[in-house]
Amino acid sequence: MTGTDEAAMWRIPLADVRPDSEVLDAVAEVVSSGWWSMGPRVAAFEAAFASLCGTSDALAVANGTAALQLALAAIGCGPGDEVVLPSLNFVAAANAVAVAGATPVFCDVVGERDLNLDPVDLESKLGPRTKAVIVLHYGGHPCDMDAVLDACRRRDIRVVEDAAHAIAATYRGRPAGSLGDVGCFSLFSNKNLPVGEGGVVVTSDDELASRLRLLRSHGMTTLTWDRHRGHADTYDVVMPGFNFRMDEIRAAIGSAELRRLAEWNERRAHLVRRYRAELDGRFGVGIAMPEQPEIASAHHLAVAVFASAEARAAAAAALKERRIQTSVHYPPIHLFSAYRRAGLTLPRTEEVAPRLLTLPLYPHMPDDAVTAVADAIAAAEPASASGG
Known about the structure:
Elements: H1 5-8, H2 21-33, H3 40-53, E1 57-61, H4 64-74, E2 82-86, H5 92-99, E3 103-107, H6 119-125, E4 130-136, H7 145-153, E5 158-162, E6 170-171, E7 174-175, E8 182-186, E9 199-203, H8 206-216, H9 224-228, H10 248-258, H11 261-279, E10 285-287, E11 295-296, E12 302-306, H12 309-321, H13 347-352, E13 356-359, H14 367-384
Parallel strand pairs: 2-3, 2-4, 4-5, 5-8
Antiparallel strand pairs: 1-9, 6-7, 6-11, 8-9, 10-12, 12-13
Helix pairs in contact: 2-10, 3-10, 4-5, 4-8, 11-14, 12-14
């Protein structure tokens, strides 16, 4: 990220933040106020976020992993339960299930271009112990929620949307996060709405919202801000809970950035279109997550699919040599030591994951940076072009 020695080595970083005067002024105002823990700025941010998602409630939390843990706790997920989720995801999703005492059950992706979960394989993994499904909207591109919801509603299974990549994305005109029972967002520094560390949980289920609110702060019936304002002088604890609260500083950053989110997402979309124009179908490369008419992606990631693992490695090396940063989203969770299970194979995930490479993408990235990425991949092409 900007301002670190490590970031200085990259001519084109994978992701980048550039705070402007509005963000700096908002932070300075909070610091000067003397009230830094959860209070009125968090409440204002939550109201704006709920409006964005079209939900009745939004709760700001400490990070995206906390959002997932809170969602699972609120739906009563625990020992003896199973939760189905795609293996091609960040490990936080599986960790949240495991920490709840439940068992993660992994499903496959659709294919090499559509890296979202396969609804057919998902349905085959549902069973009598399935408490919930965690869907990921990979790269900001909503998955087939009609198929997911149909399979789950017939079995009274809860749907948790991992919308960490998908803030302001829509599926058939409805915002990501509002489609299932509860939606979980990440505001990590590389996300479309970066505050450093942070997350948001959204729902339109009043009972779930009440449980989420209690669980977020130790199961307490009143908060420090309520008592500070004289609205309460004591509290009860009605259930065991967590400390997953967000502070005022990060809420102020989030509120300032929300006003530019649409512009930033459109800029991301433009850059992904440039990647498609310069790379898709050339040098043995495809760009994942093609556009679909019923979907508006948040374009969190620009992911190249290479013809082979060797081609991916050659391209990554060529890009690094030119000080262009890349990453991989993701090493499959079911292949990690902690989650490896005898006999479990996910053929499409296992086939495509070694060929994926995430390319730089951030709102203020110039167009010529895309050309620089394409030129580096082209230079690696003689060693890597083994397919179309």
